[in-house]
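[Q] Does anyone have a clean structure-token version of this?
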Amino acid sequence: MSSPARENSLVIDTRRLVRRPGSMVEESFEIPAPALFGTDVLAVPEGEPLDIELRLESVMEGVLASGTVRATATGACVRCLEDVEYPIDAPFQELFAYPDRAAHHREVGDTDEDEQHVLEGDSLDLEPVLRDAVVPTLPFQPVCREDCPGLCSECGRPLADDPTHQHENLDPRWAALQSLAVDETEEKRN
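[A] Here you go.
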């Protein structure tokens, strides 16, 4: 079932499941990416589409949200600084506990409060779940291609444009002798 365009919100209403274990809803939708969706090096730009396939299942403890998020992250190659696009296809699955069940589990010390997602009323917020699914799939050091030679350390030119590019590096201690060699060459010409 495909839903109409949603607001820029990843808060999902679960009332359709009517808190009956075994009931399920599947939907696909596209939503603009929230701000800072990725890492400092590679991220989905704010407002770019996130394609989400979502399955909500009512279980005894709450609502199980599972599915896939697809998008395209952009950034810069860490070697040559060229633009990089990285396709994302990340699965996710998370249990959102009913508030009364979550309170019971906290009382008996059954779960860590930081690790548990809890329904707020009849709504669940997918944004942190999607971040947790997407960020680990992004490369730590993205490159435009595996054999990218990077930039020249002397002048900053892309080495891919001129693979034979090089600079003559003279030891500064020998610089005075270099001037003598130039003078001698000029004397031979005269």
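[Q] Thanks! Anything notable?
[A] Confidence is low (pLDDT under 50) at residues 1-8.
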